[in-house]
Design goal:
Arp2/3 complex 21 kDa subunit ARPC3; two-stranded antiparallel ribbon; 4 strands; 7 helices; mainly alpha; 230 residues
Length: 230
């Protein structure tokens, strides 16, 4: 999914850079409401996990491979604003130190892989929680749906950017079919990784999972306050 230098023309790359910078600025303000002394370390751990997971590719089909995007996962664990920041930092480090995605395409990559995935992933996740029973087991199910849909949403957003400023001769219809088809399969892997990770976090410390807040309430067991789900 990382867009290389030269794949999108300069004017559109500048425009996506403005979108990315604006999104990061808004996320910086919003993250102040999401982070506290308990959750700030989790943001660092999440960034490290997404960075490492993005370095690992899994086979998809016809010789293609995919990797975790991480926007939905980060948004669910530490909040949508902080999630945008987490993935943006990961993408910047990858571009600067590992040449994974071009520097001129960094705005495009942040837009489609951080902003779009966090917004769509977290939005679908919250919609799922509103429909599903209000209990802890609903969290990984909603996380699966949010992560799954965030990947083709990212692919479609890239195709829209390519339609405006693409520099190759690939027909738009072929690009859309190729991107959505492959990324629907990649979305399954993304959803599984996200659901397992979120489920593990909820099982150990549900109070630290931003998306699970409100599903946990104090319960007295033998005179001791324990965590339980509604």
């Amino acid at each position: 999914m990382h867009v290389p230098d030269g794949f999108i023309n300069a004017p559109v790359s500048v425009a996506t850079g403005v979108v990315a910078a604006t999104g990061v600025a808004v996320a910086l303000r919003g993250a102040r409401r999401e982070l506290d002394d308990a959750t700030a370390p989790l943001a660092g751990v999440t960034a490290a996990f997404v960075f490492g997971a993005q370095m690992l590719n899994f086979p998809v089909a016809a010789g293609t491979s995919g990797h975790l995007l991480g926007g939905a996962l980060a948004a669910i664990l530490v909040g949508p604003y902080t999630g945008v920041l987490v993935v943006s930092v990961v993408l910047a480090v990858q571009a600067l130190l590992f040449a994974d995605g071009g520097l001129t395409a960094l705005g495009t990559n942040i837009t489609i892989m951080a902003i779009v995935t966090a917004i769509i992933g977290y939005g679908v996740f919250k919609a799922g929680l509103a429909i599903l029973p209000k209990k802890r087991s609903s969290v990984p199910v909603a996380a699966f749906a949010g992560a799954f849909l965030s990947v083709p949403a990212s692919a479609i957003s890239f195709t829209a950017i390519y339609a405006i400023g693409g520099t190759t001769d690939i027909p738009l219809g072929e690009m859309l079919l190729a991107m959505t088809g492959v990324h629907l399969l990649i979305g399954v892997g993304e959803a599984l990784i996200t659901a397992v990770t979120v489920s593990s976090a909820v099982a150990v410390r549900p109070d630290l999972v931003y998306g699970a807040r409100g599903l946990v309430k104090p319960l007295l067991i033998n005179g001791t306050a324990e965590e339980a789900t509604a």
